Amino acid sequence: MKLKHGLIVLMLLLGAAGFALAQTAAPPTSAPVPAAATPAPAAAPAPTPPTGSPGAPGSIDAQAKINSGDTAWVLTSSALVLLMTAPGLALFYGGMVRKKNVLGTIMQSFIILCLISVQWVLWGYSMAFGPDKGGIIGSLAWFGLSGVGYDPNPDYAATIPHQAFMIFQMMFAVITPALIAGAFAERMKFSGFLLFTLLWATFVYDPLAHWVWAIGGWLRNMGALDFAGGTVVHISSGVAGLACALYMGKRKGYGTEAMPPHNLPLTVLGAALLWFGWFGFNAGSALSAGPLATVAFIVTNTATAAAALAWMGAEWLHRGKPTVLGAASGAVAGLVAITPASGFVTVLSSILVGIGAGVFCYIATSIIKNKLGYDDSLDAFGVHGIGGTWGAIATGLLATKLVNPAGGDGFFYGNPKQLMIQIIAVAASWAFSFIGTMIILKVVDSLVGLRVSTEEEQVGLDLSQHNEHGYN
Amino acid sequence: MKKIEAIIKPFKLDEVKDSLNDLGVKGMTVTEVKGFGRQKGHTETYRGAEYTVDFVPKVKIEIVVHDDLVAKVVEAITNAAKTGTIGDGKIFVTSLNEAIRIRTGEKGDNAL
User: Fold this and answer.
1) How far is B52 from chain A (nearest CA, A)?
2) For labelling alongside A347, which of A314, A372, A377, A436 has CA 20 to 30 A away?
3) What is the total count of domains within chain B?
4) What is the DSSP-derived secondary structure letter of residue A214?
5) What does pTM read for this prediction?
6) Which of A220-245 are b and which e, b meaning 16 or more Cβ less than 10 Å from the residue's Cβ?
7) What is the Cα A314 distance to its own chain's centre?
8) CA gap A136, A221 in Å, rounded
9) 0.95 surpassed by complex ipTM
10) Beta bridge pairs of residue B43
């Protein structure tokens, strides 16, 4: 009970920190003249040239460089990526659990959207994208978005307001911990889940995003290619899911009682919304409304379609029936796998990425998982961990500068070194996410506990955690 | 006065109801039930996890009729519910002691 109160205090502090900040440092949004409000991060020359972003930083009025088309697309994309978490992922996962856990599962996605939205503007964005500390982490110099204003930050996106880049990245930080929830579905305590999510976002996601995307991040400096977050979002969440499934153990009755999805139409609807929102995720990652966004859009759609067909085909051959859940899962696997590759590969290559995703993820979720016996309930690892790993490696095989001159050439375009870099990035993400997640699980387990009691699990999360029923 | 319970395939309910109506049966009670006989269950597969579903959905019809009508009712149900495949269901006939219409207090055949 004491610990529960501690958690509530933690949440309040989170809010209080934001309030205090709003009173002391005038945020740029409240200033009448936008350009004057920002301490001109854009005026300083960029330490390294921006990758994949058009337009060079100049000394003329920063406002003039803002491209309204690019800004409109990035803001729209931010909303599209929000839609991926709630309702997309909420329905995708919500339909797959048993009836007694539908609200608890939907709540996890929904409340992560709320929790990380606040965490991100307070310290998350600064830790991920703020001034570099040794290639490992961003400093807290941008705490509370201090210095993150309307002027573009040419290090990241030269033609849109820095805050537009920030809100776009926020939606990525939101969906990543929400993906993990598939691994510990139907058995995690809500208080433990909140604390886990907050710590994981801060100590696993934020550093990893810094490594791969931030100026000075060590994986970025090494030349790792990750267009929209294959390593940062999908490998990290998938591997974290594996750690959760191993640490928390199986659901009561797993393997002996039937646990079929309670509402597959919700799941298919969720998968379709994920597909829709993913255009913001991948094409939005171009950070401009032009050819790069267009090719990312097309390869995303193509790989997803190919992966759904591949999973369905593999299952049809292997088990004799093409299932609807299989087709929906295949689509999500394809979306995951094309994510790191989406701004770097040709449309024809994306079909290969999709077929690989469908087949590999089918084997991982439907054959290997059952053999190994861990309870990754909704296959966060099987789809995101495996699909993300395949996507990162496929990028190293199939990337070409013909698609994106700011990208790189892969193995099949005469550059085997890129494949090695991708493998290092994958290994680093796996190791960091797995170890970081295990430590956080231990901490949360000892502070507030991770699992609901056996009785609560029997009753279901809806009633035991929220005093509600999904269906009356 | 006899009670007839018929367990049938759900999609045959309308045909059975219509043929009973034609016989002049004035009411019936229908329940969605699950069970198994020789048909057994089936298997479902979700991402490779196979579940055997032992209990198959069926519809149970209960009607109470005058003794004279029993043979005709049984024949009507049999004809309407029959597909010729395993799992068509069963009909049970039992004797009934009493029937009472709650509104009027009528008893026996008058209450039917």
Assistant:
1) 8
2) A314
3) 1
4) S
5) 0.82
6) beeebbbbbbbbbbbbbbbbbbbbbb
7) 27
8) 11
9) no
10) B52
